[in-house]
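We examine the record.
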Amino acid sequence: MALRCGIVGLPNVGKSTIFNALTASSVPAENYPFCTIEPHTGIVPLPDDRLEKLTKIFKPEKVTPATIEFTDIAGLVRGASKGEGLGNQFLGQIRQVAVIIHVIRCFEDDNVTHVEGNVDPVRDAELIETELLLADMETLEKSVYRLTKLAKKEKSAQKELDVILRLQAHCNSGNMARTFEAEEDDLPAIRRLFLLTRKPILYVANVDEDEITHDKRNPHVQALFDFAKKENNLAIRLCGKIEQEIAVLDDEGKAMFLDEFNLPEPGLNKLIHAGFRLLELETYFTGGPIEVRAWTIKQGATAPEAAGEIHTDFQRGFIKAEVIKYDDLIRLGSEKNVKDAGLAQLQGKEYIVQDGDCIYFHFNV
């Protein structure tokens, strides 16, 4: 399961700069709107210190981290839902991602123009969300029209129409689709619409060098964090300029740079971990002399579901899972020591995989 994130925002807020930092790519970051016309995509490894420690134990030929895909989507503007600034094309690209990363400018700089005239993070956040909501309302209107005609011929379509009509009324009242309360049976019909406002949002406050080195948030940043909390989303601070400088350094250089700015970790790590929290994802590991690998699953996944991430045959022919806790493995130093201590567990189909579990699956097809 790959985490796919779409980076959005108004023009000139630092989207491409942050994308460059995250993916160490070379998307142009110019001081004018729409310099990024086609979406740029970068796949990066999930930062996880546990992989390095597991590698020392298993000494594998190959190490494969989990990956995250970032898509840099060109700047949205007011009126995007009506096609302004190539808005329809950009909104279509957002439909394909699992998490929206909304970069918002939270710094003052007279040399960098702001498409809305001044820095106001909450206004900018609401502007983009309004465009997403307007696009969803259009999608819902088309769905209602289609289902109304279909319900006259097929009675089974009436139930779906009822659900979509309730959702339409919810969104027409100015509410995001993610706040709509639906029964489990109603979710397939809603998911088929790929509504933009059902996606969780991670707000990235793009700040200057002075702001990122202080624990206290400036008024712009605090306002955005308060807005994110109200919307039941997450917010983090990044300095796009610093992150881009860090991205091109080797490990030693990164450590020195982070120490100089008193930063505990690169912004990439912070962003990925926040994305994981939003999507309720976690990681388990498989290990041996051939390969140590990290796998991404939804929190609450059963052992067979986790096995299915490796191959559908593993899930279909699942027999049992041999589970070793990461902490036990690191503390005791080898699989043999864990087993000799009686800490390896055989788990069945009902076992809920925990973050950090090291698993060997037994299956038969």
